[in-house]
Amino acid sequence: MKHTLVLAIDIGNSQTAIGIYRDTKIEASYRLTTNEKTTSDEIFFRISDLIKHFGCKTKDFTHIGLSNVVPQLERPWIKALVAYFNKPVQIVSAKNCLDLSIAYPRPRSVGPDRLCNMIALRSRGIQNGIVVDMGTATTFDVLHNGGFAGGLIVPGISASMDALTEKAAMLLPVSLKWTNKFVAKNTGDAMRSGILHGFLGQLDFLIKGIMKETGMESIPIIATGGWGQMLLNHTPIIKSYDPYLTLEGIRLVALGGNGFSNSEGEE
To answer: Is 145 helix (H, G, I), strand (E, B) or coil?
Structure first.
């Protein structure tokens, strides 16, 4: 039986997640800082270092998938990947999402990471559910009857902290850790309590609103993204956390997609 070795890359606004899958199992994952000014040469050598660290050869990889929400980085990443692996790259898009139906008048405007989350959820046999992806932005995306029904986007936890400290001269950044008190006795805890408990209140309100509007009850709600695990044990509404959900969607598109790049980094 021939095995697959898939490289899945998720370029986000703040971080780039990279996963290496052997068949359906993720064997290694890495996180890089997303740099909008990085060149294809820099990407080439960073990928080369990761693959050497993993301990395999470029010819061992059978499929490569890419999801990207930073448009200016698509060309250098594709150019570097094609040059290094000498293989086509499956790029997740509204036209390359395994026939996932998209209830948007302009499907191309949907972020590919959001599509990946829906594809991964659907692959588990789930027809109705919600994915809450907690990164730079927090997205609430709805799978309904096996298709992407839409969702909503709010500022992420770290983005809220950044906005607060940039606009208020007397407020300095603090580490975000849980405080059990709502009524804080110092400024740092006041910010922690407001941001974290405030997000939980927002989370609860929005998910209940989605369920009421769609008529879906008792559906799976899965969290992913960097902040998901931190919040998991503080809210009863989310019972499942999967840090690799987006990468799993990319893996599936890498295996079964219909769109690829050429060596010039063009679709």
So the answer is: coil
Q: Does residue 61 share a domain with residue 123?
A: no
As annotated, the active-site residues are 113
Range of the domain at 193: 107-248
162's enclosing H/E stretch is: helix 157-167
Pair (142, 215) in one structural domain:
yes
Range list of β-strands (E), 54-117: 63-68, 90-91
Q: Give the CATH number for residue 235.
A: 3.30.420.40
For residue 1, name the pLDDT band (cuts at 50, 70, 90): low
Burial zone of 201 (CB within 10 Å; 0-12 exposed, 13-18 middle, 19+ buried): exposed
Q: What predicted TM-score, i.e. pTM, was given to this entire model? A: 0.92
User: Are the C-beta atoms of residues 238 and 254 closer than 8 Å to each other?
Assistant: no
Q: 41-58 pLDDT, tens per residue? A: 999 999 999 999 999 999
Contact call for residues 77 and 116 (beta carbons, < 8 A)? no
